[in-house]
Specification:
- Helices cover 79% and strands 0% of the residues.
- The chain is mainly α.
- Helix 4 packs across helix 8, helix 5 crosses helix 8 and helix 5 packs antiparallel against helix 10.
């Protein structure tokens, strides 16, 4: 929102208090935050789901059941992976997973008394797939930019939905692997090695691309040099 407002309203000078107030109102108006606030208020007064009328209970339960399939259907229909994007997204997700493995290993080393189930939770939870909510916020900003008729959007929505689509199976496979070999992953030293290895591997596509560009530039330079020498020889002849 800050990036969007900075571009949309360049001449408007607002104070820090007004910015904080605007940010607070924007957070409160978020639908998911409104639901959380209402739920916390009901719990503080001793109410739970069973305390609500049956039609409210049924509505909430049905919405809960259909939310994940709806999001997956939307992602499946919206994803359009361009040539070369798959490797880039995979490298980004691999780097993210490697960094979170290292962070989990650090926390395990700082708290060695944690039980095995808590250690597994500490490892698996950061490996969750990318959330849909940031994408929803990006889409909202994109809609505002369309209304303002801005030429350059703040976010690349197509790339964002591709990242979101690939992160779900990537994180699912990681979680299944961690739980399948739990005794292997609870060792912080192994986690650090895996994390550093994944971060290193994630840079391989960039290295390969840079080497290709250098080779192309070198070949192009050699070709231009050859053409220049050939032209000079022809002129002398």
């Amino acid at each position: 929102m800050h990036w969007y407002q900075k571009r949309a309203i360049k001449d408007l000078q607002t104070s820090t208090s007004n910015k904080l107030k605007g940010l607070g109102l924007a957070l409160i108006k978020e639908p998911i935050n409104l639901v959380i606030i209402v739920g916390l208020l009901l719990l503080s007064f001793g109410f739970n789901l069973e305390s609500l009328p049956s039609f409210v209970q049924n509505t909430a339960l049905h919405i809960k059941v259909i939310m994940t399939p709806l999001i997956l259907l939307f992602i499946g229909m919206a994803v359009r992976i361009k040539s070369g994007e798959f490797g880039l997204i995979l490298s980004l997700l691999t780097r993210r997973a490697g960094i979170t493995f290292c962070l989990s290993a650090v926390f395990i080393l700082l708290f060695p008394a944690l039980s095995a189930p808590l250690v597994l939770l500490l490892i698996v939870f950061p490996q969750s797939s990318c959330s849909f909510w940031p994408f929803a916020h990006m889409s909202a900003i994109s809609s505002m930019e369309e209304n303002d008729k801005q030429d350059k959007p703040t976010f690349d929505i197509n790339f964002a939905v591709n990242v979101l689509a690939l992160s779900l199976p990537f994180s699912t496979m990681l979680a299944i692997g961690i739980f399948s070999f739990s005794d292997f992953f609870i060792n912080p030293t192994i986690l650090l090695l895996i994390g550093f290895g994944m971060v290193t591997v994630s840079f391989i596509p960039y290295i390969i691309e840079k080497v290709k560009k250098n080779k192309e530039a070198e070949l192009s330079g050699q070709f231009n040099t050859y053409v220049g020498i050939d032209s000079q020889t022809s002129e002398e002849s």
